[in-house]
Amino acid sequence: NTQRTPLIAGNWKMNLDHLQAIAFVQKLAWNLKDAKHDFAAVEVAVFPPFTDLRSVQTLVSADKLPVVFGAQDVSAHDSGAFTGEISGAFLAQLECTYVLIGHSERRTLHGENDEEVAAKVTAAVKHGLVPIICVGETAADLELHGPSAVPVAQLRTALSGIDSAADIVVAYEPVWAIGSGQAATPEQAEQVAAQLRLVLSETLGQDVADKTRILYGGSVKGVNIAGYMREPNVDGALVGGASLDIDEFSSIVRFQK
Ligand code: PEP
């Protein structure tokens, strides 16, 4: 779809400290520039830990690197007595473009529910960040309800506090495919992505549905990215493990359909 620029997003999770982050982002950008990567044609984003963001911002702005970045989570609150939380205002000030919201590890390890995800999405949009709304079914959900029911319900709730003016990205990440090496097939990813696009059209309108990027995530690597990118409703990937290896991540960014 020509309206939607593909996005390859690297979720570092709790890996790489602020010094390692600087070296990594610099090397990644050089590597891709050497390979003549067209950053306008395929957008590249990294999601370092919070403590790396200031260093990454400084590097990216000083060296004018064509890589964008975001945080892995955001508070639903603006400021105040919320020990340990990070406001969207702080992230916007650090020139974060994106923020991951509702990643399956936040949902399972930190008990985030759909309402909290919705509140965070609303907060992100309010502060001018683009939320990457993560949805996906567990293996048990898949067996009980089929592939789309849970991600569709998660997305509906996640969108409840925003309107059609909001800039958003959706990431379909089946929980059973994350970090398991057991990636969904391109057909499976497409089937759910198409349902998620219908939700976008029903809730925020056809224009939003047409322009919003839907990513696939779950054991994406250099060898399997092309299959997803050939699907009409998949507009990029959210990459975990493989985003920590510069060569591997570069090969995902430089996919050939
Ligand atoms: C993720 O954490 O968002 C993810 C998709 O991880 P992996 O690529 O390692 O499966």
From TrEMBL:
The active site is at H103, E173. It is found in: Cytoplasm. This is Triosephosphate isomerase. Homodimer. Pathway: Carbohydrate biosynthesis; gluconeogenesis; Carbohydrate degradation; glycolysis; D-glyceraldehyde 3-phosphate from glycerone phosphate: step 1/1. Its EC number is 5.3.1.1. It is an enzyme of class 5 (isomerase). Substrate binds at N11, W12, K13, G179, S219, G240, G241. It comes from Cryobacterium algoricola. It comes from the Bacteria. Involved in the gluconeogenesis. Catalyzes stereospecifically the conversion of dihydroxyacetone phosphate (DHAP) to D-glyceraldehyde-3-phosphate (G3P). Its main location: cytoplasm. It catalyses: D-glyceraldehyde 3-phosphate = dihydroxyacetone phosphate. CDD domains: TIM. Keywords: Cytoplasm, Gluconeogenesis, Glycolysis, Isomerase. Belongs to the triosephosphate isomerase family. GO terms for molecular function: triose-phosphate isomerase activity. HAMAP family: TIM_B. Gene3D superfamilies: Aldolase class I (3.20.20.70). Signal peptide: none annotated.
